[in-house]
Amino acid sequence: MSDINSSLPVITETHNSPFASLQPVSMTDVQLEDGFWKTPQQINQSITIPTQYELLARTGRLDNFLRAAGKLDKPFQGLVFNDSDVYKWLEAASWSLAYNQSEELRRQVDLIISLISAAQQKDGYLNTYFSLGKANERWTNLREKHELYCAGHLIQAAIAHFRTTRDEKLLEIAVRLADHIYSEFGPSRRAGTCGHPEVEMALVELYRTTGNKKYLDLAILFIDRRGRGLLGGSEYLIDHAPFRTLDHLVGHAVRALYLCSGAADIVLETGEQQLLKTLEHLWTHMVQQQIYITGGLGARYEGEAFGEPYELPNARAYAETCAAIASVMWNWRMFQIDGDPRYMELLEWTLYNAVLPGISFDGKQYFYVNPLRDDGNHRRQSWFECACCPPNISRTLAMLPGYIYSLSPAGIWVNLYAASSVNVKLPAGQCIKLHQKTAYPWDGRITIELTSVFPAESANDDLLSKPFSLFLRMPSWLDEDSVVVMVNGEPIDYPIHAGTYLEINSAWQSGDRIELELSMQVHYIESHPLVLENTGRIAIARGPLLYCLEEVDNLALPLSRIVIDRSCQAGVEYLPELLGGVKQLTCRARIDEIDPEWQGRLYRPYKRGSTQRRNPEAEIKCVPYFAWANRAAGAMQVWNSYQ
Amino acid sequence: MSDINSSLPVITETHNSPFASLQPVSMTDVQLEDGFWKTPQQINQSITIPTQYELLARTGRLDNFLRAAGKLDKPFQGLVFNDSDVYKWLEAASWSLAYNQSEELRRQVDLIISLISAAQQKDGYLNTYFSLGKANERWTNLREKHELYCAGHLIQAAIAHFRTTRDEKLLEIAVRLADHIYSEFGPSRRAGTCGHPEVEMALVELYRTTGNKKYLDLAILFIDRRGRGLLGGSEYLIDHAPFRTLDHLVGHAVRALYLCSGAADIVLETGEQQLLKTLEHLWTHMVQQQIYITGGLGARYEGEAFGEPYELPNARAYAETCAAIASVMWNWRMFQIDGDPRYMELLEWTLYNAVLPGISFDGKQYFYVNPLRDDGNHRRQSWFECACCPPNISRTLAMLPGYIYSLSPAGIWVNLYAASSVNVKLPAGQCIKLHQKTAYPWDGRITIELTSVFPAESANDDLLSKPFSLFLRMPSWLDEDSVVVMVNGEPIDYPIHAGTYLEINSAWQSGDRIELELSMQVHYIESHPLVLENTGRIAIARGPLLYCLEEVDNLALPLSRIVIDRSCQAGVEYLPELLGGVKQLTCRARIDEIDPEWQGRLYRPYKRGSTQRRNPEAEIKCVPYFAWANRAAGAMQVWNSYQ
């Protein structure tokens, strides 16, 4: 116990990961302005976070802390990992304190912190399932009981709370818990690692926040201990082989992706090349053989798991919302390692097409599973017994401003086009204020104004005129020839390469203005011939948004019989009343009749050309995939037959 | 307890189900001769049944009985329903006693019966999991513990043993158990029904064997009690709605199909029209929307369950071998109700293409799951922790001769073309011996000789000359115009209708000879356009045999890139050395190269016509699906691209 109280946090204000090409810009330095992401962020803070607080209370998740503190005589309620939902909510609420000054929210956050504080044991241990009556079972079933997983989420909540409030009380609780864990599982202590990875990321982040390297060491240990049979050796738990020997992702998708995120955090701090190679290999295999066009991950219901290469069923896609969030976290870390725009592009695509679909427009209903085809029975729900996804979406939306910009010695990187302002000191010393105005992804016009550029140390004129670079991400779906870039009203003739960052180096001054016009054409996407369900089918996208067909927009046109005429230009129309304002696409299509001879048959002798008959042409309407299932229940499909 | 000992079996020698159009011919009256089914039957009796006996012993399944009898101080071993494997083996062994006079087998059967006898409790209760230490938990968890399921399998084993040996000792044990169950669950006793249906079939069969109607009543009660929440109301257990209100099959496939089989047994005895309508509706829905081209059933790994309509993934097909066996049982019962040849045709197809693949040619390895496409990793195994399939295949093969013929007042029905002889008394009074010679399904020539026709009562010349009908099943895949039927060497000009029974009425006499030539052309099969994975794909069959491509026959031709030229006549060649002698099919095909641009990509902007490039033509080889995975491991597929 002696070393626990001695290690109060040593706060490191500015941790730069030594092996990162890019450094993050704190979400507290970024403000969303009126634009695409502002609405989800506002709904998240005004509706989702308060609603989830009520649900945490109503479902006994808060009572579990009272009980663990000895203040309530009731059995433990719910699943063994229910504490983590409270912590994820607390993380979401903490991030949102950066821009939400609501007294109510602050009170709720403080109340929960006091509950957590009271539930923490004298030795630092904290888990309400094991606190009363089961104290002797602590750490005895790492495979299934999620104790370290829950601890990781507490640590992340504590860091978020500290970052936005500079209040150390939750961080102190987290440090005591982390120290307790270190005393149990540190070097030369018992060999153990968690069935559900998560604590690895949290420990690295705690190292970054406190400067105490032992947390980093412990995170490394937890990764190193996998694949040695400590968890029984299952693929489901990614314990079938040492992590550095993996060549493709298997098992529970969220577990696998959280593990990769933690490993990437380690690379950022240690620069370990073998770990990096493993991660790059896993990522490449994933995007080449395992990912849905939505960015969703995890093909199988059984085990919520990755499937075989090209195993990507549409109606039975699992694609858990949490797996998409995990992919965002992993891509973010990989991007920081080497600045490869592929990671950022996948991050963006996943945010729009795999994370955002997880929550309804009213902010109160969630998808856990995200099919790409549905008959209308799959609807969002207000909560789940295993409620991992709702607060995970909430914290992702709350921290989202942190993904928009990055820094490097050369300058500032615009990763996401999103109406926002940022106030940040560049590594080279300049302090800049940058204002980004755009309706992206609805259109491709982006205006970036450097409202203020001045040296960090006042009156350093030399720095003031020192050039730095603005890096603008050129998505790979761009039509390179039609991109327009203007600086202070003058077109600049830089070569545009889709799938890279465009670097504009200049001795930028206050008032400089960059205008960017990205081509937002509709593109049709096909999938690898080994994805059997998508044979003869295309998906439709515009810019970074994947589109789908919903029955409610195409009444009397059975989706499965629509055959899109790919040669016709799709129409694009902004409909302010539709789904809170979306650009709807219209395509021409024919509607095939199923040969009446199929009536009552599943198989028949092959008949050439008699399968279907054409009907007159129709106009079909498509909405962004993230918007589906917000209106009347009905069929939906992403992959469509075409001619 | 008083009524238990009073109900010793009243054996009914000839039970004719009153609402059956057709009556079965006991497997004891049928002998397989040299032909297709003889080999599997011989392997079953000489290898499979002895091997399984060893496995029952080695895995503690027999020890559980010793333990229950108080003769072994060991914990219960294995899964809660492990008794059922012993009973299914005993049923298989008992049927095979009809044609296998091995002393060894008889000793093993007697030993197991003595173990069972010793394990039975005084009150008739019998289940080794609950016998010691858990007696107070009997019947407390019908949802999960399979007690009635195990009892059902004991009853079926007992009936098989009695039928082939006329020895009543196992039947007496079964009757005592059934009476105990009746005293627990009979009318006005406790409302309960089993989580895993099976006992319903067994009780109806026990009624048929003993004449005691209370077993039939109890079977009806067990069906009536479903869907009332007694099992928690889950679809998985088919407890979500009363059975008679179901309109499609859901939940665990084996459970659902066993339940249907039991319900069909009840219809045969009661003639209940509502139950029959439900069954017909479920069957129709199943064959129109839920069945694999193999006859396999159950699309989902999760819950080993039926999926949505047209949800039929190939590589991830579940298609449990036990579900195919259950389908055979259900179709057999439906066929007896009204003699509709569709049931018999599906039964035959399922035997060849869904049951037989479940066992290796060497008789020692089993498939539990039966995919229609595989990369070569799915191989048969010698046993399973949940070992339901191996003894289920064994008992199905052992009782198979009982499916070949049926009787009706009009005459005898030839359901399956299989080299065999039958010695039976027709309902109209004649005793006939019939001899069927054929190499079917390898070729379509069948010779049926009435080696003996005489009245049951001797010297009844009137009966001798009385005409009766021979019913020959004309499968629906026939080319009607090319079928040849000859009686005593003379072609007869009956109209042939594929998918019906051809009735030939005659005053048949000893020595009459019918020759039948069925067309055995290769046919290509396509599936309903809503089976998305099969878009642009065909399966290949010849007669009742489904074919597949195996890598071992098509080395250097990646199966997924084979495009069959459907317009070319397939070659058919008998290869006596291949797989114990099969007819191999050869088709012409082109091998498409995957556009090299797909390298490293899963999705891309659609490009017209550039997906694949043609290579020169190749000859591809196909083997019957039942024979797959008996040679070198490698890819396999049933559905093939075509041009």
Task: Output the number of helix runs of chain A.
Answer: 16
Largest interface: A-B, 51 and 51 residues
Q: Quote the distance from N terminus to C terminus of chain A.
A: 71 Å
At the fold tier of CATH, the topology name of the largest domain in chain A is Glycosyltransferase
Q: Beta-strand percentage of chain A?
A: 15-25%
SS-based class of chain A: alpha+beta
Helical content of chain A (DSSP H or I, runs of 4+): 25-40%
Low-confidence stretches of chain A: 1-6
Overall pLDDT of chain A: 94
Write up what this structure looks like:
Two copies of one chain form a homodimer. In chain A, helix 4 runs parallel beside helix 7 (147-165), helix 9 packs antiparallel against helix 10 and helix 10 packs across helix 11 (253-270). In chain A, strands 2-6-7-8-13-10-11 form a seven-stranded antiparallel β-sheet. In chain A, strands 15-16-23-19-17-25 form a six-stranded mixed barrel. Mean pLDDT of chain A is 94; it is low at 1-6. The termini of chain A are far apart. Chain A has three domains: 23-403, Glycosyltransferase (Alpha/alpha barrel); 407-517, no CATH class; 522-599 and 606-642, no CATH class. In chain A, strand 7 and strand 8 (445-455) form a beta hairpin. The radius of gyration of chain A is 25 Å and the shape is globular. By secondary structure, chain A is α+β, with helices and mostly antiparallel strands. Chains A and B meet through helix 12, strand 14, strand 15 and strand 21 of A and helix 12, strand 14, strand 15 and strand 21 of B. Strand 14 of chain A pairs antiparallel with strand 21 (603-605) of chain B, so a sheet runs across the interface.
